Amino acid sequence: METLLRMIGxxxxxxxxxxxxxFADQLTAARRAELDGLLDTEGGRSSELAELRRRATRTGVRxxxxxxxRYLRLLELDAAKIDASALPxxxxxxxxxxxxxxxxxxxxxxxPARRHPLLLVLLRALVxxxxxxxxxxxxxxxxxxxxAARGSLPGARLRDPLLTVQSTLAVAHRPSxxxxxxxDEREGQGDQN
Length: 193
Prior knowledge:
Radius of gyration: 21 Å
C-alpha cells in the first residue's frame, strides 16, 4: 500500500511540474511575486484575489462601477494576455475550480509549482467573467431597472454615472480595438492583392 501511495504522489508531482513547464515563459520571477502578492492578507483584510473573485451581487450603477474596477485591475495584471491554451480543457477547468474554491491561505500553502499555474488559469477565467459582467450588466435585467429609474430620477443623475462607466470600458479596450482594426485592415489589404 505504501508503494502505491508513493507512486501516486510521484505521479502527481510530475503532473504539477509538467503544468508549471507549460507556463514557464509566463512565470518570470516578477510575475511570481505579483501572483503571491494577490494572496496577501494585510491587517486581517481579505486578499486581493478574494476581491477579484467576488461576483456582482446587486444591479445598478454602483455595482457596475465596482465590477469595472475589478476588470481594470485584472487588465493591469495582464490577465487577458495569459495563454492557457496548451493545457487540456479538463485540466484548465480543474485548476480554475480549485482556485475558486480555495482560500488565499490554502493557496499560499501550495508549493509554487502548483500555486502559480493555478493562479494564472484563475486570473484568465476571472478577466473573462468580470468583462462579461461589466458589459452585460447594462444590457440585461438591470437595464430594465435603470429604465424604470429614469422615470423617477432626473436623467442627468443616472446618465452621467453610466457614461462614466461606458467611457472607462472604452478606454480599457481601446488598444485591443485598434489592434483588431489594424489586423482587419491588413486582412482587407491581403484580399485586394
